[in-house]
C-alpha cells in the first residue's frame, strides 16, 4: 500500500462495500458448503468440485482481503460539498480540448472507481494529476504513453449538493 490517501466518492465506497458483502455473505458460504459436500465424496485428487471450489475460495479470500484494506484506507470525499468549485479538485467533471480541438469530459474519481471508457479517471492518473487545481481557460501539459499532449480546460462542474 502507498502512503497516499485512498480518496473515493460515496458511490465508489458503496460499490466496494456491496462487492465485499456479496462475496462474504453470499458467495463464500455457498462455496464452503459445496467444498464440504465434495470432500465427503471420497477421492479429492480427481474431484473437480473440490479442486475448483478450493481454487475459487482462495480467489474470494484474496479479493476480500484486498477490499478490506481498500475500505479501511478509504477517505470518502463528497464532491457535492467541494467549497472551491472554480478549480478542478476531486470529483470534478472537467471538459477539456486537445490540440486537435477534440473535446471530452472527464470526472476525477478515486483510483478504485476509475473507468476510462465511462470518462472516470483515477485521481492519481497522469492526466488527473495535470488537471488538479486547474481553472477554466488553463492550458495543461501531460506526458502520456502516446507522448506529450497539451489540453485546454474548457469547463469545470461538480454534482449538485
TrEMBL record:
* Residue ranges of domain Transcription elongation factor GreA/GreB N-terminal in the record: 6-76
Q: Does the keyword Magnesium apply?
A: no
User: What Pfam families does this protein's entry cite?
Assistant: GreA_GreB (PF01272), GreA_GreB_N (PF03449)
Q: Report whether Transcription regulation shows up as a keyword of the record.
A: yes
The record, for Gene3D superfamilies, names:
Transcription elongation factor, GreA/GreB, C-terminal domain (3.10.50.30), Transcription elongation factor, GreA/GreB, N-terminal domain (1.10.287.180)
Q: Where are the transmembrane segments?
A: none
**Residues in Transcription elongation factor GreA/GreB C-terminal domain copies:** 87-158
- Which keywords does UniProt give here? DNA-binding, Elongation factor, Protein biosynthesis, Transcription, Transcription regulation
Instruction: Report the InterPro entries cross-referenced here.
Output: GreA/GreB_C_sf, Tscrpt_elong_fac_GreA/B_C, Tscrpt_elong_fac_GreA/B_fam, Tscrpt_elong_fac_GreA/B_N, Tscrpt_elong_fac_GreA/B_N_sf, Tscrpt_elong_fac_GreB
Please provide, alphabetically and separated by semicolons, the GO molecular function terms listed in this UniProt record: translation elongation factor activity
Purpose: Necessary for efficient RNA polymerase transcription elongation past template-encoded arresting sites. The arresting sites in DNA have the property of trapping a certain fraction of elongating RNA polymerases that pass through, resulting in locked ternary complexes. Cleavage of the nascent transcript by cleavage factors such as GreA or GreB allows the resumption of elongation from the new 3'terminus. GreB releases sequences of up to 9 nucleotides in length.
Q: Which family does it belong to?
A: Belongs to the GreA/GreB family. GreB subfamily.
| Protein name in the entry | Transcription elongation factor GreB
Q: What is the species listed in this Swiss-Prot or TrEMBL entry?
A: Sphingomonas aurea
Amino acid at each position: 500500500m502507498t502512503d497516499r490517501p485512498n480518496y473515493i466518492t460515496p458511490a465508489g465506497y458503496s460499490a466496494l462495500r456491496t462487492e465485499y458483502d456479496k462475496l462474504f455473505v453470499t458467495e463464500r458460504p455457498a462455496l464452503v458448503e459445496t467444498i464440504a459436500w465434495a470432500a465427503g465424496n471420497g477421492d479429492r485428487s480427481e474431484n473437480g468440485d473440490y479442486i475448483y471450489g478450493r481454487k475459487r475460495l482462495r480467489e474470494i479470500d484474496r479479493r476480500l482481503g484486498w477490499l478490506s484494506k481498500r475500505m479501511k484506507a478509504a477517505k470518502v470525499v463528497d464532491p457535492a460539498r467541494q467549497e472551491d468549485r472554480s478549480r478542478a479538485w476531486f470529483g470534478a467533471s472537467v471538459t477539456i480540448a486537445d490540440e486537435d480541438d477534440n473535446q471530452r469530459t472527464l470526472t476525477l474519481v478515486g483510483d478504485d472507481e476509475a473507468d476510462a471508457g465511462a470518462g472516470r479517471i483515477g485521481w492519481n492518473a497522469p492526466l488527473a494529476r495535470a488537471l488538479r487545481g486547474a481553472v477554466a481557460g488553463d492550458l495543461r501539459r501531460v506526458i502520456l504513453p502516446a507522448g506529450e499532449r497539451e489540453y485546454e480546460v474548457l469547463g469545470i462542474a461538480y454534482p449538485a449538493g
